[in-house]
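Co-fold these.
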Amino acid sequence: MTTRQSPRLADGKVKAMKKVMDIERSATLVPDGSTLALGGLSMNSSPMAFVRELIRQGKKNLTLVAIVNGMAVDWLVAAGCVSKVISGLISFEGMGLAPNFRHAIESGTVSLEEYSEYLLIARLRAAATNLPFIPTKAGLGTDVIGLHPETTRLETDPVTGEAYVACTPLAVDVAVVHAHAADVLGNVRVDPKLLWMDNEIVNAAAKTIVTVERIVPHDSFVAEPHRTTWPRFITDAVVETPWGAYPSSCFPLYGHDKAFFAAYSKAARSPESFQAFWNERLAGPGTHDAFLQANGGAQMVNRIRRPAT
Amino acid sequence: MNTASAGAECTIDELMVVTLARQFDNSTRAFNGAVSFIPVCAYLLARKTHAPELVWAASSIAVDADPACLGESTLSDSIWDGAVMLSNSPFDFWAWAQGMRYNTFAFRGAQIDRYGNVNNTVIGSYDNPKVRLPGGGGMADLGCMIPDIYLWSTTHDPRIFVDQLDFRSGIGWGDGADHRESLGLPGGPKLCVTNLCVMDFHPESKAMRLKSLHPGVTLETVQESTGFTILLPEGDIPSTDPATSEELRILREEVDPTSMRLREFP
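Predicted complex below.
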């Protein structure tokens, strides 16, 4: 690794520390009423510590963009932070339906703008690339196309006569994603970057907040620039949050905590038991460390930590 | 767990996996989504028996993964061991799906109709649902993109095999006949494997047709368990081909020694 001091840091022209902030301050970048896109996929790599901070700050009327998600959306819905969810799938996979989300949609307290996975990706790409629409054959012949003709409209190509769906831009105010490492300038490394659609939401968003397992020396980015996922001009805030995806996973460091998912689902069977769970293990603990402690601390960490590879 | 047995040596889950595995060959290039233990077992079994060149991307991410056993999620890193690649780009994934470099996908649904269309969105009306289900996720997309579609259900009953879907989350043969082709979509559903029987699709009408009955299952049981009139094959209805002892050994010892596939049974 090079030991050369980066000129960007040395001459002080880049206001490095401005992007590094604590989680409380980073959450103030999400005003009430924002359209907020959540990174990760299903039980993988969601910015859960940040989501918990939104709950602690009592955010209201958020529109969530969550392509394939479960626990993060369920928390925010349970806390009353959400007026609308834009999504393709919300569940706990084989562990069942997301209970608060399900109840909120069935009772109409939260509205759902539903698409398929790719239609949402296409809408985000239209926003990211400043195009009036992205065409796709995804969803043809299904009822998904009829749900939102204003944003996913059925068209016929005038030249070939082929049917397609025109997906209009979905603009996002703030994207929040979880990553492995960043430097103080806001260069970010997802290590390894995996299939989920974090790039899609980041590129469609006016602002991006990244929670990271650790902040590393800037020189490590210069030494291995090919491993950088997002350069500093893409990111607006960096928050050092070890175990920040818990109880979702952060491959290859730790897996999702299936015991948490099971206990959460069980508690949600009655309002009383859910309230107790919520107070003891979720919203009650103050700091992220206190939250980890409330969910088993070192014992839990040993359970979910993956063997070093 | 369904108590119906496929014979002394083989349980229903095993028969379903073996039946599905035999559909695949060296040209199969597959991937999987959530709660897909039966097809995941089938891809691995096919690869470890007659189709060594079969491609399977675990969780749609881990190409050529070779896990020692399956984990409790088919969308998590618990099944990625041994992979030659952890795919990092949704752009590549969707290009590989739309370009038919991936050619095989299996899905199931809370409801399945006679044309192999599926619902995983709502039970009841969309605006006032009786049950709000997880949502279709990639079903609506992949049903349009992937030519070789396989359906499976571990609970063949009239609540799942319905005359009319409450919502079409993913397309199979659409309205039947040439509807799918007229939309410019490739291929279509090939087979539906359930805990009672195997069904294919009539070559013209594209309606579901009984292909074989699992041992001990009668035609009447299948008819009573299906909410639409199921087409029958010409002549006698065959019994589903039994699993070989070697297939069972590999499934039990090498593919899924911890029996995660049973998580799909109520």
